[in-house]
Design goal:
This protein is an alpha+beta fold. The chain is about 40% helix and about 25% strand. The protein is globular, with a radius of gyration of 21 Å. Bound molecules: alpha-D-galactopyranose (GLA). Alpha-D-galactopyranose binds near residues 35 and 170.
């Protein structure tokens, strides 16, 4: 059963009445531009049809009662007493905290959450959850919906409340995506350009089945290293550094700072080139840039893993594949491939088998369709 029906059904069973509202927030797959967002750089993600769904109804007080199909207990949040705790409810509390901090007076509600996005796999399950909760609050509390400022509030909640110093890519694509398009985002200005995905291309998510916790994996540490490298180079963000400047100052950057900066500077160049290739429908060129991106994330930035490398390697050598790379924060989770439409079905079987042979692990590959950003849906 699809997420929307599960959320509605579970709500009806729990409360004995139909929900009064339904919200959807999509996951995303990043095609290229990894670990560039928090360096003020460029990213090229696409929202996917797999989404977080929340069925809800308002309350007359300032209590929020949430049930997730993935967890046994309800989360109870008192908007007048937001205190830090542990577990998935922190995403909801963080969002409420950020929205009230921005001057909004929130109202209470009760809802049921169902998600079709694999968790902690690099497909932005957490930003989708946070944004879905924001949309509900906005609706219940009669607030206007402005995608870019709500994206910033979601980022703030994850940075300050949850403790992951994630960038702006995920909330911006989850709120602002157009169906059928990827979005080139300038993470300094938050401006996006929507680029049509050519109809002869399939985007395949290749989930290794391995999972990570971004904080424990070293995401925040990598971000700090990028900031140190920028400070040494006398700039605010690595976005302002060219390859020539980086080489001229190699001696000022001990390891791993030089390699980190090298990845970010080269990834920004690749992302702009890839956006240009996509606009021209040059899938071969786009795929080569994806392959280069993976090599840089593996060798310079150090955020790949053996299963991710194996998955990408099998994909890159399978007929019909233009290119493949890890997607999202890395360390575990999913990779993405650009594949010729007519080869996609066969590609999936060959890659799942090849990955199992190489690692003994059971991966899961599937085609994803591009979706529009978060929305309030008719019941
Ligand atoms: C995670 C973060 C994003 C981004 C990617 C890496 O998904 O949430 O902000 O930094 O990692 O590109």
């Amino acid at each position: 059963m699809a997420g929307r029906d599960r959320a509605t059904m579970l709500f009806t069973t729990k409360y004995g009445a139909r929900p009064t509202g339904l919200v959807r927030a999509p996951g995303r797959v990043n095609l290229i531009g990894e670990h560039t967002d928090y360096n003020g750089g460029y990213v090229l993600p696409m929202a996917i049809e797999r989404a977080v769904w929340i069925a809800f109804r308002p309350r007359s007080d300032r209590q929020v009662i949430l049930r997730s199909e993935a967890f046994v207990d309800d989360a109870r949040i008192d908007l007048d007493q937001l205190t830090r705790g542990e577990g998935w409810a922190e995403y909801a509390k963080g969002v409420a905290w950020a929205m009230e901090k921005a001057g909004n007076r929130l109202r209470g509600w009760e809802g049921v959450i169902a998600s079709d996005i694999a968790m902690a796999a690099g497909l932005s399950s957490s930003a989708a959850l946070g944004i879905a909760i924001e949309v509900v609050f906005a609706k219940i509390s009669d607030l206007g919906w402005d995608p870019a400022s709500f994206a910033q509030l979601q980022q703030l909640s994850e940075n300050e409340w949850v403790g992951v110093r994630s960038g702006i890519m995920d909330p911006l694509i989850v709120t602002g995506a157009h169906k059928g398009h990827a979005m080139l985002i300038d993470c300094l200005t938050f401006k996006g350009i929507h680029i049509l995905i050519p109809p002869e291309a399939s985007i395949v998510v290749m989930d290794t089945g391995t999972r990570r916790n971004l904080i424990e994996a070293g995401y925040n540490r990598r971000r700090s290293q990028c900031e140190t490298a920028a400070a040494r180079l006398g700039v605010t963000t690595l976005r302002d550094v060219t390859m020539t400047q980086l080489d001229d100052h190699k001696a000022d950057l001990e390891e791993p700072l030089y390699d980190c900066a090298m990845h970010v500077v080269s990834e920004n160049e690749r992302t702009l080139a890839a956006a240009d290739a996509l606009r021209r429908g040059s899938l071969g060129e786009f795929g080569s840039l994806m392959n280069e991106s993976h090599a840089s994330l593996r060798d310079s930035f150090g955020v790949s893993s053996r299963p991710l490398d194996a998955m990408v390697e099998v994909a890159q050598t399978t007929p019909g594949c233009f290119g493949a790379r890890l997607t999202g924060g890395g360390y575990a989770g999913a990779a993405v491939a650009l594949v010729a439409l007519e080869s996609a079905e066969r590609f999936i079987h060959v890659v799942e088998d090849g990955f199992h042979e190489a690692t003994g692990l059971q991966g899961h590959c599937y085609v994803v369709e591009s979706a529009r950003g978060a929305s309030f849906e008719p019941i």
